[in-house]
Protein: NAD-dependent protein deacylase
Amino acid sequence: MDLTEIDSFDISADHLRKVVALTGAGISAESGVPTFRGEGGMWRQHRPEELATPQAFASNPQMVWEWYLYRRQIIAQSNPNAGHDALVELEKVLKDRFILITQNVDGLHRRAGHKNPIELHGNIFLNRCNSCSERYPDDTLDFDKLPPLCLNCQGQIRPDVVWFGEGLNHVTIEDAFLHSQQATLFLSIGTSAVVHPAAALPVVAKDSGALLVEINPDRTPITSLADAVFTDSSAQVLPDLVNKIKQIETKSKN
Ligand code: APR
Structure:
């Protein structure tokens, strides 16, 4: 696949009938949130099966909580970047013809102003009981003693995220597949595209006729499938790409 320049990237108003973006940890890298794999990735320092699994939580809930509180701290100190902002702009332009699906649990799309991203893997700032699923806002919990315990059933409270080996919320993932099937343009942004089921979404979109665009400095399993590949960072590519989309949209209305 040849690398694409924005100027030579050939899209038309027809591709803008339904635009779906899937984001991964790479979009938040320039906000200072470490990715999971690749250069400086978190999984390079921690084995996922030691921290982000139900088994890890069962055997050492305190260690798992400490790791999540450490990640929360990094995220709380960071801000959305130009990539997140560009996707908010895209939502303003295309309105309900734009769907944002994210694997990120950092909430940065919401903080940037995105109304309703589909958060496939949950949100690191939400908590729920591991036994009865009761949800707990942060201000009702005491994090001095880990794990916090459920007021209803004394079960252990956990971060409301999806761990390895756990299923995704079935309504959420069905929604994501449906939107991907309907996409006329699908943007795969800053994801290594190896964790399923999210990794199947670009493939489903392409098989259903979407133009597939990848934004990632590194090659991934979907690079060879993509119709266009941008290898600059998402904070560099997305503002230009969204500007181009805006121009096409404006022209098609005149
Ligand atoms: N712009 C675009 N892409 C980038 C940037 C950047 N500035 N920096 C890094 N990347 C790319 C990397 O090349 C890599 O392919 O982002 C990707 C990040 O990949 P992962 O760390 O594997 O993150 P992700 O694909 O979101 O992981 C999926 O795995 O660990 C689980 O639940 C976790 O949601 C996560 C899932």
About this structure: The radius of gyration is 19 Å. The domain at 2-32+80-121+169-253 is CATH 3.40.50.1220 (Rossmann fold). The longest strand covers residues 122-129.
